[in-house]
């Protein structure tokens, strides 16, 4: 129950970060950033786009991370999709780009770290980052930053150069926060692997 509560908390914090970025009219990386870019271009609901984009990544998750992690990730992605849907009922407001970039990036980094530490992810490159950390001890913050940077650079068309630069600042802050918690994330991942092997034996 504690694990589920912490994943919910991580999703809530990440949701607030995503909403802040949306009202700053900037994007983040990964599938969340890609979803925001599509939302700006098509005006379709973020929650729906975010959920659909993550579907292909579940196949990789099942093959490389196992069913428990995948089911937990599907649950976390679904929860985040539902939570971000609340934004459509919020009053219209705007946040300065720099404030939104730093605050949104900080909250997303904290939220993702909580989700990672508790054996889940929010889909997309998060899954690959945790897999590479588990298999090769690669810093998940660095992996997330590389993939996020690709998404943000490709999204400059929809948000413009200045907002694109603020978006890069946002994912840099997110990557730094995740990197700060990388040892705790690695420790929890190792402990789960040991428990799983002991159970199988």
From TrEMBL:
Q: What is its main location?
A: membrane
- Keyword check for Ligase, yes or no: no
Q: Does this UniProt record's set of keywords contain Membrane?
A: yes
Keyword list, A-Z: Cell membrane, Membrane, Transmembrane, Transmembrane helix
Q: How is it placed in the membrane, per its record?
A: Multi-pass membrane protein
Q: Which residues cross the membrane?
A: 39-60, 67-86, 98-131, 143-162
Q: In terms of domain of life, where is this protein from?
A: Bacteria
Q: What InterPro entries does UniProt report for this protein, alphabetically?
A: UPF0750_membrane (IPR051461), YitT (IPR003740)
What Pfam families does UniProt report for this protein, alphabetically? YitT_membrane (PF02588)
Q: What is this protein called?
A: YitT family protein
Q: Which organism is it from?
A: Robertmurraya mangrovi
């Amino acid at each position: 129950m504690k694990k589920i509560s912490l994943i919910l908390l991580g999703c809530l914090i990440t949701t607030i970060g995503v909403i802040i970025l949306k009202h700053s009219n900037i994007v983040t990386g990964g599938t969340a950033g890609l979803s925001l870019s599509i939302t700006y271009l098509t005006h379709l609901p973020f929650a729906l786009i975010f959920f659909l984009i993550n579907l292909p990544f579940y196949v990789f998750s099942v093959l490389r991370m196992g069913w428990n992690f995948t089911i937990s990730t599907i649950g976390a992605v679904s929860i985040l999709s539902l939570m971000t849907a609340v934004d459509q009922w919020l009053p219209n407001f705007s946040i300065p780009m720099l404030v939104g970039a730093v605050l949104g990036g900080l909250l997303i980094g904290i939220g993702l770290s909580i989700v990672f530490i508790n054996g889940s992810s929010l889909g997309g490159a998060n899954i690959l980052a945790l897999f590479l950390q588990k298999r090769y001890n690669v810093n998940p913050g660095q992996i997330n930053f590389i993939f996020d940077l690709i998404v943000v650079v490709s999204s400059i068309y929809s948000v413009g150069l200045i907002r694109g630069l603020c978006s890069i600042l946002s994912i840099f802050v997110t990557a730094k926060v995740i990197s700060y918690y990388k040892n705790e994330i690695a420790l929890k991942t190792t402990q789960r692997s040991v428990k799983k092997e002991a159970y199988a034996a």
